[in-house]
Design goal:
Length: 59
């Protein structure tokens, strides 16, 4: 999960990097600042789906 203020941001493990890590801590640690791309906004649930992979490696 990513702290983005009033909503909850989530980066699925498949969206962390170009490869799938065994554990998210291989890529990021709690407190790290990361760049993300917004994939989907769910206003009703106040949740935002994010991608580090697409922010770092755009297609």
């Amino acid at each position: 999960f990513v702290d983005i203020g009033p909503a909850e941001g989530m980066v699925h493990v498949s969206e962390l990097a170009e490869y799938r890590p065994h554990h998210p801590s291989e890529i990021v640690l709690r407190g790290d600042e990361v760049q993300v791309k917004v994939l989907k906004v769910n206003r009703a649930k106040r949740r935002i789906e994010l991608s580090m992979r697409q922010a770092l490696y755009p297609s």
